[in-house]
Automatic annotation (TrEMBL):
The keyword Metal-binding applies. The lineage of its organism: Eukaryota, Viridiplantae, Streptophyta, Embryophyta, Tracheophyta. Keywords: Exonuclease, Hydrolase, Metal-binding, Nuclease, Nucleus, Zinc, Zinc-finger. GO terms for molecular function: 3'-5' exonuclease activity; nucleic acid binding; zinc ion binding. Belongs to the REXO4 family. It comes from Brassica carinata (Ethiopian mustard). InterPro entries: REX4_DEDDh_dom, REXO1/3/4-like, Ribonucl_H, RNaseH-like_sf, RNaseH_sf, Znf_C2H2_type. One of its GO terms (biological process) is rRNA processing. Its main location: nucleus. This is RNA exonuclease 4. Residues 15-44 form the C2H2-type domain. One of its GO terms (cellular component) is nucleus. CDD domains: REX4_like (cd06144). It is found in: Nucleus.
Amino acid sequence: MDCRSSMESTETLRNKCAACYKQFNKMEHLVEHMKISYHSGHEPTCGVCKKHCRSFESLREHLIGPLPKQECKNIFSVRGCRFCLMILENPNARRIHQERCQFSSVNAGLTTRMAALGIRDKAMIDYTSSRSPKVVALACTTVGGGSDGSLDLCARVCITDESDNVVFHTYVKPSMAVTNYRYEKTGIRLENIRDAMPLKHAQRKIQEFLCNGEPMWKIRPRGGKGRILVGHGLEHDLDRLQLEYPSSMTRDTAKYPPLMKTSKLSNSLKYLTQAYLGYDVHVGIQDPYEDCVATMRLYTRMRYQKHKIEAYPLAADAHNHSNQVAWRQNEVERMSPNEMLSISRSDYYCWCLDSLA
């Protein structure tokens, strides 16, 4: 009996996923799991037990959720940063790190500061500056159109760089009548947009700035002139601006798998900012500058995650497509779980790859 139990235990360990630690009765089941899970070194990982999680929300649940892994919870409570979820060497290192990891709010006195700086309406963009940003954040404020005021119309747009500087900011005159200014949320009145920049004019300026002198078809993430565009719900904002921009150049915090609530459900920007940056947004009037800063900070935090450098990091890379022979059942079943993980690749573009561009 002891010998049989030992053999069963060994077999169970052999059929255990090296990433998420799920156990399977048969090796073929583990192989199928690895084929569809797309585990990789780009997934959020527990600093204690090294378990891979699909998102930071899953990692948070693993560490401090209702049913956490107790050993990991105990260590995290003493040495873990509650913002980036990193495990530090000791409590003092945790204290110092966490103070640096938490951002301060940009909302206090924002309108006054912007007016004092002369950027209440910064409608000109410097395209020629040698310090012209490669990465920018965009956010819109919408008012209501249509008979019931439910149609979103862009009435204000802001673009910032990685240092929270305003690159472009203007009120926008919608192309159709406004029936609901949503003042309690937007702070916008008729006088703000009566003589504002027409939507088509704003659209053209932003498009030219993003493309940076490069035709749309030629824009690419690496080696090109086009700018990386960061935002939250970018598809909606670009649609309201009637703008098109390559998806390969957009970084949307609402759709980035490590920042999502589930595989199909996004977290709000308010939650992400509170949980991962340590301050509140959308308290009172929602300002597009505040949204730009929050999304850029989230992007920067994700971009500078330290992951293993791989020649072909995506499952969709042509090299990995042609290398599917590596996943032939009879060959993979002879591999150990760690060997399977070493050839597994991510099914999403990790933002850390932008730092290599």
